Batch of 2 targets.
Target 1
Amino acid sequence: MTTTPPTAPPHHPPHTGAATRRTAVARLLPGLALAAAATAVLLAGSRLLGPVTGGALSPLVLALVAGAVVGSVLGRLVGNGGTAALVGARIAPGTEWTARTVLRAGVVLLGLQLAIPDVLALGWRGIAVVVVTVAGTFAAILALGRLLKVPHRTTLLVATGFSICGAAAVSAMTSVLERDPRSGPGAPARLRDDVAAALALVTVYGTVAIVALPLLAGALGLTDHQAGLWIGASVQEVAQVVAAAGTVSAAALATATVTKLARVVLLAPIVAGTGAVLARRSTRGAAEDGRGTGSRAAPVPGFVLGFLAAVLVRSTGVLPEAVTDAATQVTTVLFVAAMFALGMGVDVPRLARTARRPLLLGALGAVAVTGIGLAAVLLLAP
């Protein structure tokens, strides 16, 4: 009778986990270094261009454009093989991580710029103007996108950017769309193109609003308070709001700034609601296809919960002003890095070929947000 010797337990070298983590970090470093260097250059360039553009050009949009240029040049070199292909392969893990994780961290820190008491100071009329404008604009652009047969992802990003807070809102919605299990192969590349289109539209039509809305406010005889409400509820980027309202009066600027912050608060329910709808559709589609529901992502992304937690912390008033100021600067840095990384994956030729319908959608969206905002101000804040 023979006895089978007991099987020895598998041997794991000591500190295997630590070695794996070091390897993972090492894979990210080239791309992270490129994103960090580009961020430093872009922020410096944005400060230099600020006086020339009057603050209308967001550093996030500048970062996306720069990323698209670098990505196009690198992509052409990679296509030729050799050393360039090796460099591209080394850079990709770090830039992809930046476009995903750093972007979500920026959304969380964005919450530290918002205090609920500041929003409540608008009064029920001001808050009603914000809610009506955001909800009406979001719904109108979704309907216009379907009418113009613009791809749903592009329409959703444009609706979010125009109705809430420009590039930051587009960034937050991007993270939700990345988690859509129905996207299929090639979806990340297409999504980057959609993000580029949405950000370009926010920049173009937001810049037009800087000139148009103060002139229209004067022609319509709006009070400073009404003008501030209208500009804050209608213009996309914070910098654009400041540039537009600042030409009206100091009182209009103060009202417009708080109104803009109130719009940003609505980022969480819009993003969470979209995530819930996508999750429900995915589950229903899987059941109809006989694939079972399987595991699915939570309908409310963790970074949205983090954003809400940051808003609550800021609203308590326990954070020193120096901390909130620093958080604002860090948020900008994170968004610029993420936008540069996203831009590196943009297919510029494809974007140019498919931009006509989104451009029309942006024009109609700009009309929608300014028209709905003006109607809300005249009806709710006479």
Target 2
Amino acid sequence: MTSQTKSASAEPVSDGKTADKVFKGVAYACGILILVALAAVFIFLFVKAMPLLVGDKAANQATIEGFSGGAAHNFWQYVLPLVFGTILVSALALIIAFFIAVGIALFISHYASPKLSSVLSAVIDLLAAIPSVIYGLWGGLVLVPHIYGVWAWFAKYLGWTYIFQGPASNPPRTVATVAVVLAVMILPIITSVSRDIFQQTPNLQQEAALALGATKWEMIKLAVIPFGKSGVISASMLGLGRALGETMAVLMILSPGMLYSFKLLQASQSQTIAANIAAQFPEANNLGVSTLIATGLVLFVITFLVNYAARKITDRKDA
């Protein structure tokens, strides 16, 4: 009787260890799969860019001059203005969206009634799922015709600054307009992740702050925001990653240029890598495709570095 009891009690332990090993193996496989996929993308881009990197210099120059209208004669002269435009537009979008998104997230998590919070959360999640081409159509057909007055005001009263130097282009197919559209696109992503992080703040920390006489805002400043700081940074990097790689919305709104310019209200100043690839790809020959893929490789590296830097910042905050 005793031996039967021991054997019966030993079986679940054995089954538990087996299940643990299986789960551990699956988890390891999933983690390795991510690394394999990342490496595969990098290898694909690098191999496809090789014809440009090792090909005939005269043919490369002719292709790049055709893409840039004679403004660039080698690859780096061609890609660096695109890198500048990509970073400029994405950074502006993040600056516009960040504080609004955090404010909305705090309102949903700590100020709105449960019913209103549920409705707003559903709306935010719906906005995050809207395809980028829809935002592009909205920006091109609605925002561009109606935002000129705003940019004209900026040019009139803030034109003494370089970035708002006038006259504002009409129609305003400019970096400023594209930045607003991208800000609207990444706003739901930052808001949704930040909201979930803020809602996970331990109740004991919030109640302790209130018990010590803190107002609700002071409680949020002392307990909620420090707790969610790392998560908000991660959410911002997710939004920035989408802005860096956005194609259709930029392509449908921005009047492209190849300049290193901070003039946000003037057209034909900058272009992004992703939009340039989409614009040039249909008519590109084999060497042209290689050139565009090489610019995509540069964008891949930029995105990787941005996320790596964000991870380092987050780890430092956690420490």
